[in-house]
């Protein structure tokens, strides 16, 4: 079954899914949605994903939005390179880290939220920095408490769902001028991930128009 992924090159939610597809070696047709031009609000795209957000996955007649739902679907359909642990407690901890980012940081840095919050770019940046710093502090604490401080990724030596959320968020943190040295465990995972093939191929730099 051929997959189609509608995505935006700099979207952290899109990067999560691109990375999973790379890790699982799934054939996919990528279609860019230009958020700066408002392409996500046009009827053609809304027919696929009524929320008007990216990413959106198409598999035949099946259409699915929301990156976490897409990642869970991919995990079930394509079990190669599992993104969740074998033990239920570890799976829950992986999901906790992922959702701390997905629910507590990433939505608050979206373009729609920033525009609604303030038209002033400096005020927008301060807003984003606050929520990134708060959320990253939580993630740092969770990772330090996990007992996996010496692994290459959050919960082992290969990427999990937690890493697929963390690395794009670290990338966004740099873009918003948040000092990652305050989060050494997160930063070390980020630096390692940026040297791996699947991460590089799915990164914004690889898809920048």
List the helices and strands and how they pair.
Blueprint: E1 3-7, H1 12-24, E2 28-32, H2 43-46, E3 56-59, E4 62-65, H3 67-77, H4 88-104, H5 111-117, H6 121-145, H7 161-175, H8 184-193, H9 197-202, H10 204-207
Short synopsis of the structure:
Helix content is 54%, strand content 9%. The chain is an alpha+beta fold and 209 residues long.
> Helix share of residues?
40-55%
Question: Which value, in Å, is the CA radius of gyration?
Answer: 17 Å
The main sheet comes to: 4 strands, mixed
- Low-pLDDT runs of 5+ residues are none
Order the strands across the largest sheet as they lie in space.
2-1-3-4
- Name the average pLDDT: 96
Topology as a string of helices (H) and strands (E): EHEHEEHHHHHHHH
Q: What spatial form do the alpha-carbon principal axes imply? A: globular
Spatial gap, N to C terminus: 27 Å
**Helical stretch count?**
10
Secondary structural class: alpha+beta
Q: Please report the total strand number as a whole number.
A: 4
Fraction of residues in β-strands: 5-15%
Fold and architecture overview:
This protein is an alpha+beta fold and 209 residues long. Helices cover 54% and strands 9% of the residues. The protein is built from ten helices and four strands, in the order E-H-E-H-E-E-H-H-H-H-H-H-H-H. The chain has helices spanning 12-24, 43-46, 67-77, 88-104, 111-117, 121-145, 161-175, 184-193, 197-202, 204-207, and strands at 3-7, 28-32, 56-59, 62-65. It has a four-stranded mixed β-sheet, with helices on one face. A hairpin with a 2-residue loop joins strand 3 (56-59) and strand 4. The two termini are 27 Å apart.
